[in-house]
């Protein structure tokens, strides 16, 4: 049974150790890998996020 890229990404988020660790340490939110801060203000920070499926 062949998986779609979406199905593979969903599976990896729960089963691949590196991705689970990235979520735990705040380096990933859902399908987005956080790559760094691109701006900040008085009330927030803006970070660059790279989407796994649409890189």
Fill in the keyword field for this structure.
55 residues, alpha+beta, three-stranded antiparallel β-sheet, 2 helices, 3 strands, 33% strand
Characterization of the model:
With 55 residues, the chain is α+β, with helices and mostly antiparallel strands. The chain has one domain (5-51). It is built from two helices and three strands. The chain has helices spanning 5-15, 17-24; strands at residues 28-29, 32-40, 45-51. A three-stranded antiparallel beta sheet has the order 1-2-3. The chain is elongated, with a radius of gyration of 13 Å. The model has no long low-confidence stretch (mean pLDDT 94).
What is the gist of this entry?
The longest helix is centred in the N-terminal third of the chain and has 11 residues. With 55 residues, this protein is an alpha+beta fold.
How is the secondary structure organized here?
Elements: H1 5-15, H2 17-24, E1 28-29, E2 32-40, E3 45-51
Could you name the ranges where pLDDT drops below 50 across 5 or more consecutive residues? none
Could you state the order of secondary-structure elements as H and E?
Answer: HHEEE
- The average pLDDT is 94
How many domains, in number, for the residues? 1
N- to C-terminal separation?
Answer: 25 Å
Number of E-type strands? 3
The description of the largest β-sheet is:
3 strands, antiparallel
Global geometry: elongated
Strand content: 25-35%
Summarize the amount of helix as a percent range.
25-40%
How would you classify the quaternary structure? single chain
Helix/strand structural class: alpha+beta
């Amino acid at each position: 049974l062949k998986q779609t890229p979406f199905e593979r990404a969903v599976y990896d988020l729960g089963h691949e150790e590196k991705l689970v660790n990235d979520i735990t340490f705040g380096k990933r939110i859902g399908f987005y890998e956080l790559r760094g801060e691109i701006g900040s203000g008085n009330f927030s920070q803006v970070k660059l996020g790279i989407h796994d499926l649409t890189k």
